[in-house]
Specification:
Glutaredoxin, Glutathione S-transferase Yfyf (Class Pi), Chain A, domain 2, 8 helices, binds glutathione
Length: 206
């Protein structure tokens, strides 16, 4: 059994969708926290950053295993179920690269945009403009890719789509115009958003 600790944000949605797509048995602990809450020592032992999500797999090889960082969790689950990472080398490399774009480019851009726009108490307009431009740079690249291929890895739906979907479906809606100017992303959002596992995963972490 896998236990997942999550807060209702895009990162939690990514892991919930992975679990739903793979059909792995799990229990979700939806954490309610407020800004400034300090993680307990027990939680820090599972996730050294004290952030969410984290999973604990009680049936891992060699005994219970905690996995933190959304990208590492997604790869762990895909490896465990042997699905959602393409077998073909070209598609696999593409999946890893676009998963990295989601994890290390678009996610931090949207997290920073959230802080600068909704939480900062001083004038941060120059920094906000920069991070919004960066977000559009990543979205433009994703849009071009989805103009060439059905999914981010190519013809095959993969974990890269799962790591990207919640960002585009929720976080990016905070940008002026949302995804209205990205026609290939709009096509893909409709396609991915219809998957029953995606609908359930989004609900679990919303
Ligand atoms: N790099 C981490 C980021 C995790 C993260 O920032 N989680 C947020 C929610 S999306 C969180 O736990 N925020 C609470 C905090 O920073 O204390 C990952 O990919 O899992």
């Amino acid at each position: 059994m896998i236990e997942v600790y999550l807060v209702p944000t895009a990162n939690g949605q990514k892991v919930a969708i992975m679990l739903e797509e793979l059909g792995l048995p799990y229990v979700a602990h939806r954490i309610v926290r407020t800004v400034g809450d300090t993680p307990s020592a027990a939680y820090l032992a599972l996730n050294p950053m004290g952030k969410y999500p984290t999973i604990v797999d009680s049936e891992a090889e060699g005994g219970p295993l905690a996995v933190f960082e959304t990208l590492a969790i997604a790869l762990y689950l895909a490896e465990k179920a042997q699905r959602l990472v393409p077998a073909d080398i070209k598609a696999r490399v593409a999946a890893h690269a676009w998963a990295a774009v989601a994890a290390s480019d678009l996610t931090p851009a949207m997290a920073t945009q959230y802080f600068l726009t909704l939480r900062a108490t001083t004038d941060v307009s120059e920094a906000t403009a920069w991070v919004v431009d960066e977000a559009h740079r990543f979205l433009s690249a994703i849009d071009r890719r989805l103009g060439e291929e059905q999914f981010l890895a190519g013809a095959e739906y993969s974990y890269a789509d799962i790591l990207t979907y919640p960002l585009v479906a929720t976080s990016v809606q905070r940008l002026e115009g949302g995804i209205s100017t990205y026609k290939n992303i709009r096509r893909w959002v409709e396609l991915v958003g219809m998957r029953p596992a995606v609908v359930r995963g989004m609900e679990i972490a919303s």
